[in-house]
Amino acid sequence: MRRFRFDLQRVLDIRELRKLLAEENLGRCLREEKQAQSRLDQAYTLQRDVWDRQRAEAEGRLEPWTLKALLRYRTFVEEEIGCLEGELQGKKELTGQARSRAIACAREVESLSKLKDRRKKEYRDLYWWQQGKVLDEIAALWFNQGKRR
């Protein structure tokens, strides 16, 4: 009997490569999301520092040019926070898409692997059924030869 060969092996190999690429893409997206979150956290820290400095300046003698500079800086920091929040939201969406793609690829590979295992089991069952059939024929020939003597 011929050796077991899975006809869809090339498809399975390609799907496994796609799964690896999807997982790599997911890792990259997670890393970029984490970096964006870190930049946003730094901007929030900077915003708190600006508020504290502005509060400290307001307690003492008010210098208009210092107050004006702090207000400009505070406005700049708040605009930067708005941009970073938008960027983070975009990164989260990309991460969600990459995660769903990785899950879909993993499911495809798993289903093809199960199909391969099922076909291999069917092949083994057929092989042993044919072997049993051959052994039955040999036993029948020996039995019939024993009767003739």
List keywords for this structure.
149 residues; mainly alpha; 2 helices; rod-shaped
What's the gist of this structure?
The chain has 149 residues and is an all-alpha fold.
What can you see in these coordinates?
With 149 residues, the chain is an all-alpha fold. Helix content is 91%, strand content 0%. It is built from two helices and no strands. It has helices at residues 9-59, 64-148. Helix 1 (9-59) runs antiparallel to helix 2 (64-148). 5% of the residues are buried. The mean pLDDT is 90.
Helices and strands, in order, run as HH
Q: Quote the beta fraction.
A: under 5%
Which outline best applies? rod-shaped
Major beta sheet summary: none
Number of distinct beta strands:
0
Radius of gyration equals 35 Å
Distance between the termini: 34 Å
| Fraction of residues in H or I helices | over 70%
* Average pLDDT figure: 90
- Runs in which pLDDT lies below 50 for 5 or more consecutive residues are none
List the total number of helices.
2
Write the layout of secondary structure elements.
Blueprint: H1 9-59, H2 64-148
